[in-house]
Amino acid sequence: MQPQPTATAFKNFVLVGVVLMLLGDFLFALNDAMGKWLVTNFSVGQVLLIRSLGSFIILGPLIARQGPAQLFRVELKRLQVLRVLFATVDVGLFYAAVAYLPLADVMTFYMAGPIYVAALSHVFLNEKIGWRRWLAVFVGFCGVVIALRPSSAMLSLPSLFGIVGSLSFAMTLVLNRYLRNTSDTTLVGWQMIAALIVGAVLSIGAWQPTTPVELTGMLALGVVASCAHLLITRSLKLAPASLLAPLQYSLLIWAIALGYLFFGDVPDLYVITGGMIIVVAGLFIFHRKNLLETMPPEAVAPDGH
C-alpha cells in the first residue's frame, strides 16, 4: 500500500503545480507574440507548416515512446476529426487576427473561451446551466462586444477572425471533455499533423525565403507551444483545477506586457473595460461550477432558481 503524502508534501506539490501553470501560460503568451512577429512578414500557411515541424522536436520522442500505432487507436473517430478541425481553425485564425490587430485585443477575444464553453456545454454536453451562470455568460459576451469597439468597424475581417477563432477554441475544449480517455500526446500529435497539412496547402504560391533567424523563430514556435501544453498538463496533475483555472487569465496580462514591449501596442479603454468584464464573468462561472461540484447541495442556493 502506497504511503499517503504528508501535508507538507501536498503543499509542495500544489506550489509546483501553480508555478508550472504560470510558466505554461507565459510560454503560450510568448508563443503568441512570436507568431505575431512572424505573420507580419510571412503567410499564415508558411508559419503553420514550419511551426508544426518544430513541434515534433518535442512530440516526436513522446510519440515514439507511446508507440506510433497508438495514434490510430482512438475513441470516437468522428469526434477526433472534428476536434482536429476546430483546433486547426483556432490556431490558423489566431495568427490571421494578430497579423492585423494588437496582441492584447486578440487575446481578449480568446479569454471569452471559458464563457463560450459554459454555453456550449449546455447544448453539447447536456450540462445544466442555471440562470446565474446564463447571466454571467450574457455579461461576458457584452464584454466581448465592448472590446470590439462598438462602431461600424466592429465587424472588420480581423475581428471576425478573432471571434470565430475563439469559438473554435471553445469547441476544442468541449470536445476535449468528450475525448478525455485519449492521451495528450495523441491529441496534440494529430492537432500538429493537421496544422502541418493545412499549412502546406496554404503556403502554395505564398512561400517566401527565410533567414536563419526567421526559420529558427518558426521552429521555436512549435517547441514553445508543445512545452506550454506539457507544463499545463503536468500542473493539473499536481494541483487542484479549482486553484489553477483562474491563473489562465494571466495570459491577458502577459499579452498586454509583451504587446507593449515588442510592438509598442497600448490597449485602449474599450479593450481594458471589455477584458475586465470577461475576466469577472469567467471567474464567476468557474466559481459557481466549483461550488455546485464540491459543496453539499444544501449549502448552495439552487442554480436553477
Overall description:
With 305 residues, this protein is mainly alpha-helical. The protein has one domain (17-299). It contains twelve helices and no strands. Helix 1 (7-39) runs antiparallel to helix 9, helix 2 (44-66) packs antiparallel against helix 8 and helix 2 crosses helix 9 (212-238). Residues 295-305 have low confidence and may be disordered.
In this structure, how is the largest beta sheet organized? none
How helical, in percent, are the residues?
A: over 70%
Q: Radius of gyration over alpha carbons?
A: 20 Å
- The secondary structure category is mainly alpha
Kindly report how far apart the N and C termini lie: 46 Å
Unreliable segments (pLDDT under 50, ≥5 consecutive)? 295-305
Using the alpha-carbon principal axes, give the shape: globular
Binned strand content? under 5%
Count of the domains: 1
Q: How many beta-strand runs? A: 0
Oligomer: single chain
**SSE order, one letter for each helix or strand:** HHHHHHHHHHHH
Mean pLDDT: 82
| Total of DSSP H or I helical runs spanning 4+ residues | 12
